[in-house]
Amino acid sequence: MAHELKSKVAIIGGGPAGCICAYFLQNNFEVTVFDKSTPLKTILPTGGGKCNLCHAEFDFKELASNYPRGEKFLYSAFSKFCTAETLNFFENIGIKTYIRDDMRVFPVSNSSADVREKFLNALKKVKFIKEEALRINEGFSVVTNMGAYKADYVVIAVGGHASYDLIKMLGHKIIQPKPALVGLKTQEDFSSLSGVSINGILFTHKGISGPEVYKISSLRARDNFPYKLTFDFIGDIDLQAELNKNPHKSIKNLLGEHVPKSFSEFCLCELNIIPDEKCHSIDGKTRDKILNKLRHFELTVIGTAPDGEVVTCGGVDLKEINPKTMESKLVPKIYFCGEVMDIDGFCGGFNLQNCWSTGFAAAQSLNFTLGG
Ligand SMILES: Cc1cc2nc3c(=O)[nH]c(=O)nc-3n(C[C@H](O)[C@H](O)[C@H](O)COP(=O)(O)OP(=O)(O)OC[C@H]3O[C@@H](n4cnc5c(N)ncnc54)[C@H](O)[C@@H]3O)c2cc1C
Fold it and tell me: Residues 53, 107: contact at Cβ < 8 Å?
């Protein structure tokens, strides 16, 4: 038998998206958040424990251009709740923020645990139930691993790492989830270069990582493996002039002025050139081979590595969600927000911004529906 649910809105998932939605609903509805784990636990590892809350881009279209999936869809939500509103929200719940030189916004405390605590304190009227939602029956009743609860509206905010079964049961199409903002495994063995970093590309035991690689993994998240990448590590230098100027220098040390020495040594060995060879003995053909290697450094990506922010490219098909209200186009009174949708952004606070904006948009349209 179904329990009588006091709440009218059931939010499935107490991550950043579900919780901000709950915040903006709690004065007008009885709100219950179902989370199989601990609410806002997923905010703890963000920004390396410091919580990169958002990005200091105040133009909503510019902001949206940082989402390989969801750019246009987000226009409406961003036009209602963008960076300024996000900063206001955090100020209102007692979290002061600062903007770093790279435009990333962090709490002054530099602590995601502090953000979590203050956020949960601001959700005093919200009821939390630690149960896993398994199914949403017509009408609605949210069926969990423990029982069934009635609700007038359901907001689905289960994130990108959950089972999509309960959404598929509603008839929604799921775009196949793939990891983005991750390291990449390569066919080539770069373990001897592990820890060496050039222009945001970090060599690892398994392949490559670092900010530039996360971006690439995001842009190419839908590509099949293997695929090739080519990097220019040296730019436009006049190598012949440098060779002429430094006849007694080793080629390894000369190149070491442009790239890390271990990397120059690695490339020279791959080309069967002795790293200690003096510059005067490098002929034109060898010079071109070196330049070609460093300007068109090619590698083959064979998979992803589980480091980085690890967001999900994929999720509920955006064609089936109203971008103004976040309501399902297939099942009225069901709403979505956050990473569960086929939306993902680059590193820099964009993924949390998706949660703040779409969580607010869902709450606003629900408030509007009830005249709240
Ligand atoms: C290591 C790491 C660092 C990151 N750092 C940043 C950062 O600094 N800035 C940034 O913008 N983004 C960052 N991100 C991304 C960001 O954390 C996510 O995009 C964001 O947490 C998504 O929020 P969400 O509420 O949509 O989903 P989630 O945070 O995944 O929350 C979903 C919640 O739903 C619950 N749940 C799932 N299924 C069910 C079910 N059936 N029943 C009940 N409960 C359920 C889960 O337990 C969870 O609590 C980072 C991600 C990772 C992994």
Answer: yes
Domain match, 62 and 32 both: yes
169 and 239 in a single domain? The answer is no
Q: For the chain, what is the domain count?
A: 2
For a substitution probing ligand 1, which of 42, 50, 123, 134 has the most ligand atoms within 8 Å of its CB?
42
Residue 76: give its domain's CATH number: 3.50.50.60
Give yes or no for residue 130 CB within 6 A of ligand 1: no
52 CA distance to ligand 1 middle (Å): 13
Indicate whether 146 and 253 sit together in one domain: no
Instruction: Quick: pLDDT tens for 109-158.
Output: 999 999 999 999 999 999 999 999 999 999 899 999 999 999 999 999 99
* pLDDT confidence tier of residue 8, bands split at 50, 70 and 90: confident
Whether residues 51 and 158 share a domain: the answer is: yes
Q: If you take atom 1 of ligand 1, which residue's CA is the nearest one? A: 309
Residue 9 beta carbon below 6 angstroms from any ligand 1 atom: no
Q: Could you list the residue range(s) of the whole structural domain that residue 194 is in?
A: 180-304
Is the Cβ atom of 42 under 6 angstroms away from ligand 1?
Answer: yes
CA of 159 to the centre of ligand 1 (A): 5
- How far from 245 is each of 31, 169, 240, 273, 280, CA to CA, in Å? 73, 71, 9, 20, 9
Q: How many CB atoms lie within 10 A of CB 125?
A: 14
* Residue that is written with structure tokens 């896993």 in the block: 132
Tell me if residue 211 falls in helix, strand or coil. Answer: helix
Residue 20 Cβ contacting ligand 1 at under 6 Å? no
The mean of the pLDDT values for the chain is 95
pLDDT of residue 34: 98
| Dist. CA 54–CA 283, nearest whole Å | 52
Q: Is 344 in the pocket of ligand 1 (CB under 6 A)?
A: no
* Residue 186 shares a structural domain with residue 163: no
pLDDT at residue 306, as a whole number: 79
Mean pLDDT of 197-203: 96
